[in-house]
Amino acid sequence: MTIPDGGPHVNGAEHATLPLDDGDIYVCQDGPRDAPALLLIHGSASSTRSWDPLVPLLTGSHRVIRIDLLGHGRSAKPAGPSYATPEQARRVGMALDRLGVKHAVVVGHSSGGAVATALAEQRSDLVTALALINTGPSLDAFIAPGSAAVGPSQWPPTDEQLRRLASTAFSRVGYQIPQDVLDEVRHMTPHTLTTTMQATRDYMEQRPLPDRLATLGKPLLVIFGEDDRRWRSSSAADYRAVPGAEVELLPGLGHSPMLEDPPRTAAPLLAFSAIH
Q1: How far apart are CA 24 and CA 48, in angstroms?
Q2: What Å distances lie between residue 224 and 146, 156, 172, CA to CA?
Q3: In the chain, fewer beta carbons within 10 Å around the N or the C end?
Q4: pTM for the model
Q5: Pairing mode, if any, of strands 63-67 and 104-109?
Q6: Taking the domains of the chain in order of start, what are their residue ranges?
Q7: What is the average pLDDT across 33-61?
Q8: CA-to-CA distance for 147 and 218, rounded, in angstroms?
Q9: How many other β-carbons are positioned within 10 Å of the β-carbon of residue 36?
């Protein structure tokens, strides 16, 4: 299935659902369709909505494509299929094929960076360059959460439980977590939430991301909020093992800089994508 240019548009964006072999995948496109493609992949317990503040800063020069990974957002949440990181990457590649995208700069936030890496491993023809935003290079960089996870017996979680869970995703004083970001977690199932998080751990345990990326020969930009409370920001230096990698630390920002300060996040991303 290819989405026509005349598909449904909301606030200038084109929304559609792609039926893949193991579940429907939601996609959203903004910007000129003939501009270079920029793919945005969200992290665990998130969705395309996590990119909303950043997208308007990117569409002047890019066809911006967002995808809800299986189990997240407005995509299907089946209990049966594998949620392994390589499988999520395979679905992303299939979705881009359906959209007629031949080449794209791929941006991943947090665990979305692992999916972006797996996509580059599978589809060297498709991925021209990678940008990782607050994606830990290995499990050694992970900071243990201070609060316990919400179990299946507590599902769906309350707003207060969600705010506690999401609190480590932000560091800026006075930042109000958007309600729709919290709602995306609630719309997941306990199975998809726990399974997708475990899948990221399994993928990174098998091989650290810098080791994987070093063999791919793809241009790499790493953006890290310096006050990240989930991954040690100093670990961003590990990506320098990738030949030519650029590492950009953003002082005063935490795990989700594209929400906390979209302009400061967009600046290095636009400069990088303009070259690659």
Answers
A1: 15
A2: 21, 31, 14
A3: N
A4: 0.91
A5: unpaired
A6: 9-275
A7: 96
A8: 37
A9: 16
CA atoms of 150 and 157, how far apart (whole Å): 7
Instruction: For residues 239 and 237, give the distance between their C-alpha atoms in angstroms, rounded to a whole number.
Output: 5
Given a contact cutoff of 8 angstroms between Cβ atoms, the answer to whether 210 and 120 are in contact is no
Sequence-ordered list of residues with C-beta below 8 angstroms from that of 271, at least 6 positions apart, any chain: none
Instruction: For domain 9-275, give the CATH superfamily.
Output: Alpha/Beta hydrolase fold, catalytic domain (3.40.50.1820)
Q: How many CA atoms lie within 13 A of 121 on its CB side?
A: 21
| pLDDT(256) > 60 | yes
Cα(95)–Cα(114) distance, rounded to whole angstroms?
17
Answer whether residue 215 shows pLDDT above 80: yes
State the Cα–Cα distance between residues 114 and 119, nearest whole angstrom: 9
Whole-angstrom Cα Rg for the chain: 17
- Distance of alpha carbon 206 from alpha carbon 76, whole angstroms: 27
Res. 213: pLDDT tops 60: yes
